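Dear Dr. K.,

Following up on our conversation at the group meeting, I've run the structure prediction for Right handed beta helix domain-containing protein from Pocillopora meandrina. I'm pasting the input sequence below exactly as I used it, so you can double-check it against your construct before we proceed with anything downstream. Let me know if the numbering doesn't match what you have in your notebook.
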Amino acid sequence: MGNLSLINNTFAYNQGLEENIPTKIAGAIYARVRKLLGDVEIRNSEFLCNYGALTSIFALYVENSQLSLQPRVTLQNLTFVNNSYNFNYSKGCGIIITEGMGFKIMSSCKIHGNSGGIVYVCEPGMLRCSGNVLVEDTMISGNIEFTLSVITKSFHLKNVSFVNNSCIRPSQYSVLRVMSAVSNSSFHLDQSTFLNNFGEPGVVHIDLSLLEKKAADGQVIINNTEFRGNFGRSEGVLKLLKVNTIKIQNCKFINNFGGIGSSHANVQRCLGMLIIRNTSFNQFDDSQVFESAGGLSKHVAPYLGFLTVTNSENVLMCIRNSSFASDPFSTDSIALIVVEEVRPGLLDSSVRIETPINTKLKLRNITEIYEPIIGNKQVTISTIFTTERCPEGTYSIHRGTRRRLSDKHVNCYPCPVGGNCSLPLAAQPNFWGYPENEDIVSFQLCPEGYCCLPSADNKCFYDNNSYLHSGCQGNRTGILCGQCKQNFTEGLFTTECVRAKDCTHSWYLVVFFVLTSLFALYLVRKPPVFEEVGKQLTWFIPRRKEGNNQVICSLDSTARKMAGVLTVSSYGVKNILRNKIVLPVTNLFNLKLYANANTNWRICPWPILTPLLKTMFHLVTVMTILFSIPIIYLLHSGLNKLRKRRPTLPPAGPYFGAVLEIVLLGYSAVTGTTVRLLHCVSIQEVSRWYYDAHYFCWHQWWQQAAIVVIALNLFPFILTLYFTSLQLYRGKISGKIFLLASILPFPYLLFVLYHHVKKKITRRPDYQAIPSTASSGHDEEYDSNSSTSIKHSLLEVLCGPFTKPQDDQSDGRIYWESILIGRQFLIILIGWWQLDHALMRSVCLTILCLVFLLHHISQRPFVQCRANIIETVSLATLVVVGVLNVGLTRTGSDFSGMNKAYISILWTSEAVLLGVLPLVIALFLSLSLVSQILRLGIFLIKAIRSRWSFVKQKYNHDNKVA
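The predicted structure tokens came back this morning:
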């Protein structure tokens, strides 16, 4: 045959039937010649979706290669897509070119989605594999059962990309397989890429001594090539076997897996020289689930080190200007580099070896000296670099590092509070880590919902290089995760940050003002809404003459105290109960907005919300209701004037009572918010605000204002309420003065103190600083409606459910509201004072609740015995919850080593105690709803029977008339 030339052709959807010949070859192009005298060229052609029994695309066989003139084979600018062969033949391929060719070139080709590989082959027994092969500027991607197998003398790959190919074949095949059976053979790999390839034996296999020559004399040069994300099951990514000279330079080995000796590079029987220069080895993952091309199989690919050199006696091996860096932490020791029996001078100071964080780099170096009887002595060294983790319960934020044979010592420190040291240092749930210095890390408890909550499969590992951004959730960042990321802002009812462009919920402001105004109107008018609803829900229960207001008040005060305890000391409650039932209910009693990280109710009326504005917004609820009351009074007066009713001014009593009630109800919210503004933590020796740590403490105007509010209003209010309650009940002060004293307690105390001192100085027993409401009969008669109404309304709010004085010598328990307010103040104050010391906080709050219980039992302040019993039970429940929390010493504690059953019992007990009342109420409401349905059924049956009786009587009457 003279020559073969195919230019500008397309071979598509051809099917080569299997012929009954010994070679069993058929495909799109099948050329079998006795001898070949001219060149073979195929250019600018496409091979699409062809099928062959053994060869799918192109087969060129020369039967008598000795008679051929070593012609050139050129494959240029070709496209091979979706060609396949019969998988029953394990040696099937896409292209096969046998011996007898002088120079084989594949240039600017695209090979994608094919099954079967490319084989340039000669029969080893012929020893005629002396041709050259060049593959350049070619993309090989997404092929199944693919191998580029070459048996030749010289093979050069330049600018070739192997991407997402798989080779699931017998052990002698790899994605790239290069062999030689002649002397002085060579392989050059230049400017190429191997990305995400899978090979059952390996990815690249190079053996330049196929016939087991006594002395390996082949040469391998790998230059400027990247191996990334590949998986070679048994041989690793790069296997070099029986090569005399190996040069690996300017290369990158990144995140490769598999292998028995090493995942990245394995060298065996290198008898001459091995040089690795300007090359980096990097590993980021400890394993990976690898799916072969076409999705035929999935494999778990492990990482087993960087470099292994074995069976290479007295080889000259030099590693220069290179780095080996491993990131994945392993509790087991991993051999990063294993080198056996090489000459001295393996490493110098230009080589850097790094182990994962929290591990040390260990070197085992063995020197052997062989002194033959004749000749010079030989010195060889065997070197193994392995990783060793810090002892369990300790940590380090540094890597084990070596340059040459000297190492940087790694110190391991005890695991910090809030940290998890079972693997590389990680944060426990809701903790945030930061560096104290170059070696020490501390963890700070985060505001709930700010920091990472690790799952069983995902831990919040500490990253010393990006600790400001790591460990946060909900698009948060910064110190203690206190800020939102760029283009994000705070949401009202969630701790997650929402996109600023999504803050379009202006309607919420209208709804907010409407609801607060309606609540203020309810406090003024006090319509029997709940009584009527309760009456309808409990229609099947016999009515009692006495009301249930006392019981309701008792439950209200108990719930408010429970809210304080839960806010500062509840650790063990199950998330669903705590987040969905207990905290929303208790915050409702305290007139607070409840933000939960898990809620999907992300309302954002403005894109300028910050943690500070959200905290201030807690006060807005109370203040809006408070200022709505006088506005309603003015509107009521204006309506009376328009309707010409007399008197124009409505009775002030209900309005004064509503103001007092919102002052009492909002005390806990105001105190909690004020204390929240003062909550500071020390981070890197700087005091910062807990909820947005970019604020430095004690230099902000709002913190100074909070201190003034506590000192001049919240604390004096307790004392003022105690004394003025008695004075109001005895008629020594008017209702207006009492309400003014409640709003401005500190000036009132100064006023009383001034007149008390003045009375002592003047020594006048009849001296009266504040006029009594009973001092003038004329005035009382003239203003009896207003004064009596105000006093009655205030006393109804202040001491309605409590025991009244029985004689002139007893004060009763009309001051008990001040006791309840004082309890809230103490609970919130102690919770804030000991917020960072969980055990001390639990102990203090438990003792405090026990004192409250004993005090309540001794005083029995409520009129109804039933109310006293309910209050006793609620306080006893809080004591038990406090004792349980003492056992659960702190949030985020690591209970490893403890009996998990005991911990579960504590959590379950706490959940039951705190959830029994909401569950009973929910059950009662459900039964009441069912009863309403039954009631409706009974009503319908009665109506039908009544109608039927009427129709029947009318029918009988008509019959009689007829």
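Two things stood out to me. The mean pLDDT is 80. The chain is about 35% helix and 25% strand.

Best regards,
J.T.
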